[in-house]
Amino acid sequence: MSLFKARDWWSTILGDKEEFDQGCLCLANVDNSGNGQDKIIVGSFMGYLRIFSPHPAKTGDGAQAEDLLLEVDLRDPVLQVEVGKFVSGTEMLHLAVLHSRKLCVYSVSGTLGNVEHGNQYQMKLMYEHNLQRTACNMTYGSFGGIKGRDLICIQSMDGMLMVFEQESYAFGRFLPGFLLPGPLAYSSRTDSFITVSSCRQVESYKYQVLAFATDADKRQETEQQKLGSGKRLVVDWTLNIGEQALDICIVSFNQSASSVFVLGERNFFCLKDNGQIRFMKKLDWSPSCFLPYCSVSEGTINTLIANHNNMLHIYQDVTLKWATQLPHIPVAVRVGCLHDLKGVIVTLSDDGHLQCSYLGTDPSLFQAPNVESRELNYDELDVEMKELQKIIKDINKSQGVWPMTEREDDLNVSVVVSPNFDSVSQATDVEVGTDLVPSVTVKVMLQNRVILQKAKLSVYVQPPLELTCDQFTFEFMNRNPDGIPRVIQCKFRLPLKLICLPGQPSKTASHKITIDTNKSPVSLLSLFPGFASQSDDDQVNVMGFHFLGGARVTLLASKTSQRYRIQSEQFEDLWLITNELILRLQEYFEKQGVKDFACSFSGSMPLQEYFELIDHHFELRINGEKLEELLSERAVQFRAIQRRLLARFKDKTPAPLQHLDTLLDGTYKQVIALADAVEENQGNLFQSFTRLKSATHLVILLIGLWQKLSADQVAILEAAFLPLQEDTQELGWEETVDAAISHLLKTCLSKSSKEQALNLNSQLNIPKDTSQLKKHITLLCDRLAKGGRLCLSTDAAAPQTMVMPGGCTTIPESDLEERSVEQDSTELFTNRRHLTAETPRPEVSPLQGVSE
Q1: pTM summary value
Q2: pLDDT, tens digit, 9 for 90 and up, residues 802-829
Q3: Domains of the chain
């Protein structure tokens, strides 16, 4: 913050909700008065033009009625105002006003009255030019070295420079490589126009080159005509400044040298006439406008630079000489002579705050009050410190990272799933094949006992299941007493009919699994009442399920033994019905009061079918990499051909294309075909990964039933086999799962300490094939069959303590993450034709809501 504020000499606020920019302010003797006093000309985007001549009775006075000489509504937005010798036959100053589609030149004159309030000012339109293109900005000067008059150059929004010789239009030229317009200035010493292109480089164009270049109006001619007539518009010099420019100003205070000043977004540049950098200054703030002016020291230039911190800095070359505070953020700054006061700084903000100020050190009457000093009581400080340390120690002992146990009743979350489907489905895709996709309404109720701060409710499902709204925020549940974020979870299950319908049982199938129980078989009508047919009594032991999209699964209950068989044509389709059968059997026997019910799996582990899905998924990943590499090569070839063609077209002497156009067309077709192939492969890869996840859930479920694993051991398997929610080329399922299973084999399932001493590679790369992964999965099942135990600590499996390899430190984190995210089953489409659900272990639900 500056020690000194800019001293307010005169100020006013223009209009009501009007907007202004850097071209809307100009200071000049526009009425050609004999005293040579400057007038303030301001134009607004609302179309108002105002001319002020401040005469404050004392410093700091506001605007009086007589200060406003003229106010005119031009009815078109004013982009820029300039004053110069714009009328032929006279060297009087005239006012040029630039609109978006029009350039108007006015003469401003005043008539003296008998009294002070009798002075009258009026504007007379001398001439106007209707523009064929939308204007951006303009500059003026004695183009071509003419004497006694000024010419105007207007830059359009599409990069055309239009030169007007006062009342007549001279010519128009397009800037090469134009994209967006930048600031424009004219250097009289070099007779050139200087701008900053969208390539972030300063460019200089000679006026003579512009005058003799090919006319922009002839751009509609044929290619042969354009190559044979006129000259190309060639840039004189360029300088890359690496940032966009806010403004350009050219200063020449003597005939020997001139300087080009460029204000960037973070730097301030001073260039020579030939484009070499004279000096530059890195700014620590964001500038808004600037103005170079002459210095009292020989060979130096002073510059006013305003910024968005309401500060005005005065530099002598690169040395900061003064800093002052302004009451607003200026978008334009000028220096002039007002009311016999030289060096008045005039600033204009974007909302119309116009102020005339000067730099001074008027003394301030404010005096800072004396600070009351008191002695420190160290005994009280020690007591307070001990109390705070005790509070911190108690919190660290009693609570973990997520304190979920002590105040569990502060917020209760309950969920009610509607028993009936919505009458009008809210699904994005109403149909999947020939089946209609239903939707169900879920009501979530929150009950808070204390005032909470910003409670958020999140509902998560895995794609392709969708929610109409998955985030809710409650602002009016004020604060949490301890200030620590807390998470409360509520789990619930969705109806099975949401993803499958009753179907016709099938007698034969390619894939079958058998689940053993220790209780008598239960009627399938009792387990699946919503899937029973009214006329078929055989569904007591046989029941068919039809997934949305066409897949079918058959469930059979043995009449004599305590077994259930699930069969289907696809291996991954077995998981949903198997998991749902176990869940419903557990619920059934719990209602009957039976506590020793258990399920088991005694058949052979279906690893061969599982490995086929792994190989198919890995093959699609390799195919995707090959397609992307080939697409990259074709794209490089396409750009190379484009550059060759562009060089041929720009050549002055036409040359044959040598079938480059045919090669370009063929390469383009190859690029499009490869892009379509990549997109198709990505869709197939997504479907394959979904099938693989469903099959992985089934394998984990069968391993848990086979070895009677606990819930914690099943969670470790889930963390190892399902570490990713999405499969990408950079980090895929195969290498991640292989690293996790290798870690288990070398820690809790290791046979000796030698295996634990082997370090794993900390970097995961896509493997050459899946043989090693399949070998590790087979070895994992073999060691579990021989009595191995899954645990996160290595002490339970080995006699000595070992440091966990660096590449596998994510296993415990994945355990916590998967238990919080994957703990509940979420329904997934195994392909785009049917649906399946995912459930890590039987006692969890297919949807999870998290509120915090």
Answers
A1: 0.49
A2: 333 333 333 333 333 333 333 333 333 3
A3: 5-216+232-360 (2.130.10.10), 409-427+434-494 (no CATH), 499-601 (3.30.310), 610-786 (no CATH)
